[in-house]
Design goal:
- 32% of the residues lie in helices and 25% in strands.
- It is α+β, with helices and mostly antiparallel strands.
Length: 179
């Protein structure tokens, strides 16, 4: 007997500095909201989304402002869901370009035509945060029509410098956390 695909289908949940992402399919959510800005990239034939009290609309690409009540229907397709810290530079750049005075925008950009299918497939199937991070950075660059200048968190840089400059036995988790 074939093993049933879990519903919803989702890959690992990846976290970076101000960004989180996963691939998602086979589900209809309840009405909900997030304190993060969202980017939905459909990989097949379109998904459905509706804002609170609104009608269902089909999208291939959707940018959604933070704290907007919405409902998602994956429509038997697969989406890359990206969550952005609403105060991050990337989110501010995308808001300025697409969301001026709006809760949601569905840019008419043929994003998948600008990406290589094998890059997307590899990012979905291979649990490699560097590969997915690179793909998301590439998507942001296309949407902003310029390289995204996402500053690195100074706390992470300081911690990495401490690790590189010390004998591992001299460091404790508490000391790194305090720094």
């Amino acid at each position: 007997k074939m093993k049933d695909i879990p519903k919803p289908f989702r890959t690992n949940f990846y976290l970076w500095n101000g960004i989180a992402a996963l691939f998602f399919s086979a589900y209809v959510t309840d009405l909900h909201s997030h304190n993060t800005m969202q980017l939905f990239v459909d990989l097949q034939h379109g998904f459905k989304c509706r804002l609170s009290g609104g009608d269902w609309q089909t999208h291939r690409l959707l940018i959604l402002r933070e704290n907007v009540i919405h409902q998602l229907d994956t429509n038997d397709s697969v989406q890359l869901l990206v969550y952005l810290d609403a105060d991050s530079l990337v989110a501010k750049q995308l808001k300025a370009k697409y969301l001026e005075g709006k809760d949601a925008a569905s840019p008419d950009i043929q994003l998948l035509a600008m990406l290589h299918p094998e890059e997307i497939q590899n990012a979905m199937l291979d649990p490699d945060p560097l590969l997915l991070g690179w793909l998301i950075g590439h998507i942001f660059s296309i949407l902003a029509e310029a390289p995204i200048n996402n500053r690195r968190d100074a706390r992470i840089t300081k911690t990495e410098e401490m690790i590189a400059g010390n004998v591992p036995a001299a460091l404790s988790i508490q000391r790194l956390a305090d720094a």
